[in-house]
Fold this sequence. Notes:
Blueprint lengths: L1 H14 L8 E2 L2 E6 L11 E6 L8 E5 L8 E6 L3 E10 L2 E11 L5 E7 L4 E4 L3 E5 L1
Antiparallel strand pairs: 1-2, 2-10, 3-6, 3-10, 4-5, 6-7, 7-8, 7-9
Amino acid sequence: MKKTGLALVTILMMAFPAFAEEASYGNVELTGLARDSWALNPAGESNAMVCNVNGPDGFLTLRTRPSSNSPSARKLNRLAIVVVDTTQREGNWILVVNSYRTHSKDGARLANVKELPVTGWAHDDYLCDFLD
């Protein structure tokens, strides 16, 4: 019973990150959860970077509605940049109005910006502030 309980806690911790990823990937430094800085820009668009996706999936699924049960709008790997509308929040969900990539998922700068058009909802546990 103890092994089962420990395994369940481990799985839940991987599925629902409680802490911001603070790490460096090549030219990119992740500096904490973006939701902590959105109050500084309460009425508009803000950029955040996909983070905390180090589990078995390795990507963030954007949803068509603010619910993990709603259909997928797009999947984004680590370090994709999302443009969020800080005025559109539902609990821990925020509206993503666009996405693009300036670095590979390992942090190498790309020669050209790669557009990743999407509109959908992201859970804010997977969005970090960043420096590049």
